Amino acid sequence: MKHNSKHHSDAAAAFLKDAERAKWHDETLWFVRVKRDQSAQDVSGWEELREQASQVKAHTLSDLGTYLKQFEKNASLKGIQIHWAEDARQHNDIVFSILNRHNIKQVVKSKSMLTEECHLNQYLKDKGVEVIDTDLGEFIVQLRQEPPSHIVLPAIHLKRQDVSNTFHCALQSEIGNSDPFYLAGYARKVLRHKFLSSGAAITGVNFAVAETGNIVVCTNEGNADLGVHLNKVHIASMGIEKLIPKTEHLGVFLRLLARSATGQPITIYTSHFQAPLPGHEMHIILVDNGRTKQLAREEFRNSLKCIRCGACFNTCPVYRRSGGHSYHNTVAGPIGSILAPNFDMHANADLPFASTLCGSCTNICPVKINIHDQLWNWRQILMKERYAPASKKISMKLMSMVLSKPVLYKISTSILRSILKNFPFILNNRFNPWFKNREHPQPPVQSFREWYKQNRNHE
Amino acid sequence: MNSREKILQDIDAIAMGKIPLPVFVMPSEQSGSTNLVSLFKEKVQAAGGIAHESATIKELNEFIKEIVDKGTLLINAVRHTVHYNIEEYIHLESKELEAVHTVILTALMGVAENGALWLTDKEMGNPVLPFICEELVLVVRKTDIVSNMHEAYVKMEEEHHSFGVFIAGPSKTADIEQSLVIGAHGAKTFHVFIISNE
User: What is the predicted ipTM?
Assistant: First the structure.
């Protein structure tokens, strides 16, 4: 699915035009954040868990080659076929070649952000293979021909009426019936038919265990399992950073994942795919697609610890008020903003600036990625490489000059106070971007300097 | 050079200091099996399941008989219970099992912190069964309930399965305007029988 190429702030402005809907989006996502908090408080030793998870991932990344080879060996011993893909195109080619060998024309797919990243659906469609996204949220956005706006809650930007209209147009459901129970039940029937008539299942991978060659997939709907067990061919696509060393580490990550994502103590289904059944095929595609490049960037290596929980989205005040589609990237939100520039610095130069650097993302991340530090680091690089607008550079230089020269500072602030007091309309108008959604403060009667000068003899 | 070599070479070329694997210390939790069972039951119910605590095989058999009386298709893989019939279905293709209404399976353990139950394809007969049915019934021994996921992975035996799963409730989705709907693609109803005295 092609993303729009609007600058984040323009896309966000468009999103915010519908103020009521934007407010609803904001509140809905914040509510998910609150559920995460309640769930985290339920776990004694939550912070120790985060630290454990962070260190396990950091360790794994620091020895990634060893673990990849170990995973490949152990998986192969059980009859799993391992494939390696340097980039999206190779990944897609591998998927197609497996399907083509079996003459499969219809596949069901459970949630995989990696396959979104590789634009697999369009690729397969062009080659005459129908792909049906079976996660209900992904199914909805697929019917609407738009990308998911959140990695865990793909249709969070839609209201029930939107879903009802989409289902009516595409599936002939009852017009105007927007009861979620009815709509989900309708989708169940439609998708059950697709599960039964497909030739293969494609899944993502939440965790790949090097010690055993097993993969773990977490869902609430059971769509990954239905797909895999109703078909003889299972293709699992995974980014190379999804590895963890041992089975025991699953305990750590599985206690963190669902709680961080939705506030549930665990997803309804935590499926451990270990080996193909007799007569079945199981394939795992290990995908690089820019990950080794990010791994080489010391400042941004930690971003590869991500377990795709989406908690940073839910807490981010900018994401909540701009929506996933404003980020023109498969993965949106704070984590998306530190992953995307690695792919394409020019196209994604706006994303690290789509942040107030409040740090809430870093605070909530279950694997302790220092997201807001990396957002700042990217800004330095982008400014240096001139991908960021010149106006920002100029205004920063000006501000730096004023703040570092006491006389200039005194004059500037005195003028500012005078304007605020006597000619507020100079600042309080639509030409001043800082005036949108803000009121300017009342100017103080005296500046601190003036007050201090006046009062210091009383000490 | 093939892709595998290229990727491994690219990784190898990065000068990274090796970060040590942390030593894991199991968090100390209060236990006492009564607490565990009641916490487990609470979590099963919170996820939309129905927990039958301190059940006996006799009660389970009555439950099974009630279902059979309703006339819907039942597949029961729990040994030593009435209407144990998995053998009749084990040779069928997964897609042929679409019509099953209720599936009854043994779970090897339950996890108190989240109400999840662990079972493998050995307990399932056909791995599609827990997901394709309308109603799923899992049977677990009270003494097989552990405190948390760490303990679960310790307890798990190192047998070779094709497939294992933690199931924590009926299937669900909140993808439509965050409204919770029970019964997405998998089971719509979920029962857990916690068997004591066995």
Answer: 0.96
